[in-house]
Each structure stands twice: as structure tokens, then as C-alpha cells.
Description:
The chain is an alpha/beta fold and 468 residues long. The protein contains 14 helices and 17 strands.
Amino acid sequence: MDHVPSDALVFFGATGDLAYKKIFINLQAMIKRGHLDVPVIGVAKAGWNLEQMRARIKDALEKHGGIDPAAFQKLISVFRYFDGDYKDPETFRKLRAELKDAQHPAHYLAIPPSLFESVVEELVKSGCSKGARVIVEKPFGNDLASAQELNRVLRNAFDESDIFRIDHYLGKRPVHNMLVFRFANYFMEAFWNRNYIESVQITMAEDFGVQGRGAFYDQTGTIRDVMQNHLFQVLCNLCLEPPVRSDSESLRDEKAKVLKAIPPLTPKDVVRGQFRGYLDEPGVKSNSQVETFGAMRLYVNSWRWKGVPFYIRAGKNLPVTCTEVFARFHKPPTIIPESQLTANHLRFRISPDMAIAIGMMIMAPGEVMEGRNVEMLASREPRRDEMDAYERVLTDAMAGDATLFARQDYVEEAWRIVDPVLKQQTPVHNYEPKSWGPKEAEQQLAPTGGWHNPTAPVQEEFSLEANA
């Protein structure tokens, strides 16, 4: 069913928090851009009727982006809703009737993974899975075994080509931009390898805590929540080889190869931290050992990258909210004393703004031949009328384009890498809110030259410039 557009969108979990905060505003955006002109069928177990659901949609749009009058009216006109238990065959008989003559529906499971199996089984029994796609939200399991079981459930009813595992991070434009920067610029190939790059850091920092989601977070933690999915996707975009074709499978083949080249993590490669005050959050166990900060060192044993350490860290209650890649070059053999040299670097800012910058040495003021470190900002793009990540991935899923979605082998390889340290329960070290995590991250995993700590985005005009 490759690239046959879906002719209906069935939305399980229509009354949930994800729908309220993210999905409805993006369905409206899809309609506004002309990317959604099929029935949208909401399903949930809330005791609501269609009018209550329409009121919920309106409230969601008002609070999370605003109402576009024309697109809102169109969304309301194509939206249908019925209440039903996900384990009751009658719910799926109603769904089959609501689908009418739709031949290729997309079933979006914005529900807990524990419900996937019963929903998928009922979709098959009712005939709703015939010719259909299924779109599932992360987490794709919580370890390798559960991911394999989840994949078994999905593959019993759908071909792999019809399974769309959403990692909304791949829908972000700056994440795409990393691939364009790599493969559209010939000079990148000359130095983007182990001969020139000493180390690479990926930092995803958030300056807030769990924001009332303590019960969810205490079942997940930073490594499961963002590192083995979002940040591994960034890692793959940095490390993959040029795909031989432009189709989605060729790109996903190269991503899977990157993960296959990474050995499983060991305890010495990981530091976990927990900010002071986390245990006081509602829903958090009083003796919780769940991490709110993670740092890891891994190696990609490919021809291009063997021997280059990749350092990945993420955490809550850090000084800024920012996601950034920082690649540090080897120092050159030069007449200038090494003690006066700062290694060159390449910096990709992914969010909240998007920037590409190059750090270099120039002559310091005065007549003595001493170096001075400066950064040339090669590109900074403002955010204007940009597709939200969810809008992009839902649009692509409806169109049957799998490029931005995780394949089964990719998901299982990602879990293979982190599983050993998750099972060994490495120590959790306290850190102060608004610091850069526990001191153990500096002591045990510090890159040569130290961690690069991103700063808050610069508020200025966007242009080519050099920053001292």
C-alpha cells in the first residue's frame, strides 16, 4: 500500500492530553495547508457525545495556537466521534460502520502501549485493518523485550511498510537541515570523519522540571524518554553514510547501520542524575531512582567514525532550554604552542533557534603571534510559518511516506544499546536545579576540552557574522 493516500484518519485517544495539547492544533494546520480533506473519526472512552467533543476541540485550539475560522469549520465538518471501550467488539463494529466506503484508513493509536494488543486484535476481527495503516506513539516499549513484543503485535496485523512509529523529533525542520548541510555541501565530506573530528557532543537541555507529569516520568526517566529515541535519531543523522537512493528505505537502511555499529553501553559509559526536589513532585515515589539527567559516551565502530567518542546528555532543570550538537576538531600540529590553541569546532543549534557556526583561531590584537578564538555564524534561521513536528509527521503518515518514522530493526537496535545499563541500575547522583547536572558527569565522562554548555539563544537580526 506504499504511497497510497489514506482516505480516513481514525484517532484513538481523542479525549487525551496529547490530543488536547498537540494533535487538534496540527489537524487544523493540515487542513489550512490543504493536507487533510478526509473524515477524522475520534474514538475514546469518556462518556462524551459529539457536541462535547467539538467543544473540547475548540478549547484546545484557543489554548494551544489559536483558531483559524475557515480551517476550524472544516475540521468540525469532517470530525466524527463516538464513545467506546477499546476491548469491546461493538466499538469496532461501530467504527467499521463509520468508515463507510473508506478503503485505506490510518489508525492513529495515541493510547498507552498496554492497550495496543487489544485494539489491534479488534481492528483485525472487525475488518478495519484491511488496507489500513497504523500510526503509533512512542514509547515503543520500555526495553528490548517489550519492544520486540510490541512489534510482534503490530506485525501480526500490518506489514512493516504500513506501520508508522512516530518520533515527532524527526519532524523538526532543523533535524532535516543537518542532513541537507551534510550532503549538499561538498566541503563537509573532507573533514566529517575520524581523521579530523576529535569528539562529538549532543546536548538536550530543559530549564524546567517534570511540570506535573511526575507519575509518567517516574515510569520512564531521561534515557527512555528522550535519549534512546530523539537523540539517537540526531546521532544517526550525524553519522550515516550518503544513501544510495532518495527513497525512505535507503535512508532508514543507513540509520540502522549506524546503530548496528554501536556496542552496548557499559556502566562506565553512563552517568545518571536526579535534581534535588524531584522526590517532592506529585506522583513520584519517595525512594525513586529514576533519572532526570543522563550522560553517556558511545562509539560508532564504522569506517568513518571508529575511535571517535560521542557524548550525549539530556536533563531537566538545567540552566537553559536548548538542543545543540558540538563537534570538536583535533588540534593542528602548528608553530603556535598547543597551550595557546583552542580546538576548532562545528556547532549545530537545533532548538529553540536554528544555527550553524564554525569556531576558529585568528590572530589576537597586538603584534605578538598569539591566537584568539572566534566563532563565525554561518547560518541562523528565524522561525517563520514553519510546520510543527506533529503536522509534518502526520501529513507524511497519511501520504504513506515512511522517511521520518522508525523501522522495527532501528527500534530494536536502539534498545539493544541502552538495555544493559537500564537493567544494571547504575547509581543516581543528585544535582542542584539550574546546574549542568551532577559533578560525576564532569569527572567520569568529560570530553577532552570539557563539555560545551549551550547558552541562551541570541536575540538579534539573522545574518552572516563573526562572534568573538
